[in-house]
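Give me structure tokens for this 336-residue protein.
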Amino acid sequence: MILALRALGVGDLATAVPALRALRAAYPDRELVLAAPAWLGPLVELVGGVDRLLPTDGLDRPAWPDRQGWVDRQDRVDRRDRADRLAEPVEVAVNLHGRGPESHRLLAATRPARLFAFANTEAGHGDGPDWDDDEHEVPRWCRLLRGYGIVADPADLDLRRPAPGTMPGGVTVLHPGSKVPAKRWPAGRYAALARELAARGHRVVLTGSPPERAGALRIAYAAGLPATAVLAGRTDLAQLAALVAQARLVVSGDTGVAHLATGYRTASVVLFGPIPPSRWGPPPERRRHRVLWAGSAPGPVRGGSPVAVAAIGVDEVLTAVGEVERAVRRDRAVAA
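Here you go.
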């Protein structure tokens, strides 16, 4: 069994896709188990190659759950066979979660034959590459595996396309929310942006979590959009992925939705601050994505202060929207 730990969120899982696929390719005959939050199950399916999901939310568990806590991702495996396979020892544990020591120790508790992780003397693990604070999140985990002889392609970010279901196609998705307040672009600017995009013929919808629904409704009202345009709190993760996969455009902060847009090559404008895009931004070679980072502006916001994202203007976003839409048209012309 190969056990990989990534007990974080949507964007975190999306940036680990190349590493997970490299593990699948390196161990084609082994069971690949991913320790991640259970609610990420639909996205795990869209990554592909993962055999099972072990529900693990953060690093606060004192030990791994017993076999009853494992979620089978292969319906064709019957219950008896599943129980036998879950009893297998961990051949390789892979820390795709962090630098340690807590995550190292959590994996070490499974008593793996080998542990792939960044070097951390506090955790007693010196066999691994050194951590680089300034490294982009995608190449970071590819470099970790390379240190153990496994080749990973950081450009391998595409996700499987889900069935559209009931989600509308061709819409422009605005995602105003974020768990981190400093990453949120002001609501008034989202309203101004929504109003202008709607005037230009975009069918705008607003997404977000259930707690973000009230704020999204206020933005819609200020923009003159109907309440039906607010999908915040009304989509699960599978539906959100389907919405982004077939969207015309996505505008969001540095959050999981932006990574879904990258995974589906959906045109996107991502508003960064305070963390620079060099750490979490879409690959520069993908022309359908534009990044705006207020931390590069002159004055007190230089370096990405906690209010840096508020320095981005509506006109800048509209200019970036025009750029990505021209890139989409060029791509379609070449394909034709």
